Amino acid sequence: QVQLVESGGGLVQAGGSLRLSCSASGDTFTANGKGWFRQAPGKEREFVAGIAWNSAITYYTDSVKGRFTISRDNAKNTVSLQMNSLKPEDTAVYYCAVATSSSSGGRIEEYDYWGQGTQVTVSS
Known about the structure:
The chain has 124 residues and is mainly beta. It has no helices and eleven strands. The chain has strands spanning 3-7, 10-13, 18-25, 34-39, 46-51, 58-60, 68-73, 78-83, 92-99, 111-114, 118-123. A hairpin with a 4-residue loop joins strand 7 and strand 8. 34% of the residues are buried.
């Protein structure tokens, strides 16, 4: 059974940093793209960042470019999201996901497996 588990969420002041991690079990997913999404209360789930299977290509939504960095460790079967200079508008539940292909785009339909989410709250 495939399972994705996120960790690292929490409460932080504006300008602070958090590092989210996602561990996968039940499959290695080393040949799949991976991504992070987020969902704020009352809003749709949105793409945050994606990374290809070999880390050669990364994608970011405009609002996080220059502040967030996605990375992966295929040996450990993990994907991480380093979040710096956090803003109150970054407050959301963050989800990791595994794409159906080796790349990772911004559409929810491109992803097969999802974690349960971790809450990130940024206070002003």
